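Our consortium's second objective concerns turning raw sequence data into structural hypotheses that experimental partners can test. To show how far this objective has progressed, the report includes one record in full. It was chosen at random from the queue rather than selected for favorable results. The single chain below, 794 residues long, was entered without modification.
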Amino acid sequence: MTRRHVHELGLARLAFRNGDWSHAGELFEAVVTAQPDCDEAWFGLGQIAAKVDDLQSAYSFFLHACELKPKAAHYQCALGELLCRANMSAQGVQILERAAALAPDDMAVACALSGGYVGEGAWAKALPVLQKVCRSKRAEAAHFCLKGMVEQKLGEIDEALGDFKTAARMAPDSVDAWHSLADIYRVRGELSKAGDCAEHALRLDPANFGLLVTCGHIEEAKGNVRQAANYFKQACELRGDDPAVWVHLGIALVQAGDTMPAIDALERAHQLGASEDWIYEHMGLLFTKRGQLDAARENLEMAVQAHPENLNAWNTLIVVYTKQGLADKARRAAETVLASNPNHVNALLNLGSWFSDQARNAEALEQYRKALSINPRSATAYINSLWVLVHDSDATSHDVLTMAREFNRNLCAPHLRNNTFAHKNTGDGRALRIGWLTSDFRTHPVGAFVLPFLGKFNETKVSNYVYYNFPGEDDVTVRCKAAAACWRDVVSLGDDELADLIESDDIDILVDLNGNTEGNRLLAVARKPAPIVVTWLGFPGTSGMSAVDYILVPPDPVLEAGRWCSEKPWPLPACYGVRGGLPNVPVAPGLPCERTGRPFTFGCLNNFRKASKETIRLWSEILMRVPDSRIVVVARGGTDSVLMAYIHEQFAQHGVSADRIEVRGIQRQEMYMASYNDIDLGLDPFPFNGGTTGYDSIWMGVPYVTVPGDMLVSRMGRAILNNVGLSELVATSNDEYVAIAVALANDHERLKRIREGLRNRMLASPLMDADAFARGLEEAFGGMWRQWVAHRSL
């Protein structure tokens, strides 16, 4: 090149840097006219064309520059980026990979390649490139934001959070960094932190469409539906062409009760291209979460009618049909999803629950194992598996403990905090702070067992802190609140945030009342936010968790030996719990069979899922040995023809005809309680005995026969019967279980003596003595605390 052309090239670069693209273009053209093989000038022309969105010309110029100088990595990089920009990402990424091979240490090339991978959705390929970029000195906040986004896509939530925090520290005024932080906290369920970050980002950019939408989702998750609607409305006013945001606005307005504006918003979404099935799907999901199952079913069925391949709607329908007792519809919905996607984890879980409700335990476990093979970190799959195992007569206590420990090892133990609680005041004379963690301080069996004693503690010994993980409340909730020194609504808190709150409240003993039940916060419990953690009531079995120290049990040498659990069993003085909320439904006099002239009636008003294979075999043997007899059982969906046929088939295998089996559906409490007046003698299921139903049966004057096993769920019947003086009904073997039931069916006078005054005996027993139970818990908590203090001083 002549000196003049070198000078013109330099002037062209300067003009380009200054944004004078017209003059820069004239100079570059002059150079290539005089010197056609000047790769730098051709590259410069490509840069200018790219700036003015003339992508075709830019492509020609960059390609010619690459042909003149094939080993110039930045030429290849520019060409690759251009192709990605032109929606030709596959070709673009290939060229960017070539550039990265030419210049492996060039961070600009690495950034471009990571962007190409992100554009393709190749998250796993993007991550190592971004890790390399973020280790370099040239790393900027935007790189950490991009890396965090990729990690979030890959499910590496904790790593993503760390990168978003780094980005915010590096660039405190970066809206993207704070927005990303808000969204990741929302995903983690840490809604208070999400809200703080979103507010900070909004102060930086009040008219950011995406940020307003995120704020709407945060408030929606908090339950602040009017505020959510306000954010979605602002977003729609900024950019009214996004149908998804109009749908979210409509749903928020529905939740807020603003029907007409909600209809307008949903109609606008439909006009903008949102499909009817998508709108119905989201409405159905909303109503499902709110427990409005009829409305949910109507919307979801309209969704699948409009678009039969809407798997999300079908999957939610499985849940709705199951809860409504429509067994055959639930099964067919699950099979529809799995026919299209055999690896649909939620469908596998829901199909497993369908099998479980029918006591088809082996088939339920098969579905849960499939789900775990696809997603080994599915807490629901582990929890559901544990529920099936404790209902299965083929499973042992060792099987249950093994599964519980696997759940702990894979999901819980990694969260355990190394906290010594060295700051704790271990002196005498202060009330212990007891934290009660639950979603069930409402009209629920757990509420019925806790409310009677919660306000009866000696305030110098126990101070109640409640961590309530449910969005609604009722009369039971109000009464529980009155008995608490401190009440925390925690449904909107993430697991870390909840654990932090419990620690900051300086709780001495945390009692988890959920265990493996719906609404649990096991991953917060896994962090061990108190020196002592106890499990009780919700799931009457072992947690398997290394964070849990004790499990409360009734006095029972088999349970106290502890071979069935990972925790240390702590026996309560007389019984497992005291029952409240029992309605004053009258007990009909005499035996139902004599009063009504109907055959002798055995009964089990537990959910049929507790009727294990061995239970059905023994019940059938009892019915065969008492020829003029029948049995009443309860199943979710008792009128469903498919379910009825299955139940009849199980008994038919042992020679019992369908006309001797009455299947009833789930009933309202008073009707359910009155059903006991139809039963002469109760039969306790196993291995999962009746707990709440055991109390109910005695309350309604119906004794029952039980056979204990070797873990808590299978020794509940024994604990109840012993407390009302009916240890004679506790069998020592399966054969004796049958023998006791048959003998009582044939000795009406003895059975009437046992039934006589049973409610009064219950009222006079430890099962109803809330004051004594409170004293027993005070002593248990005091004993645990003394042991912890003594151990810490060693």
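The partners drew two points from this record. The first strand starts at residue 432 and ends at 438. The chain has three domains: 3-231, 416-571, 592-768. Both points have been shared with the crystallography group to help prioritize constructs.
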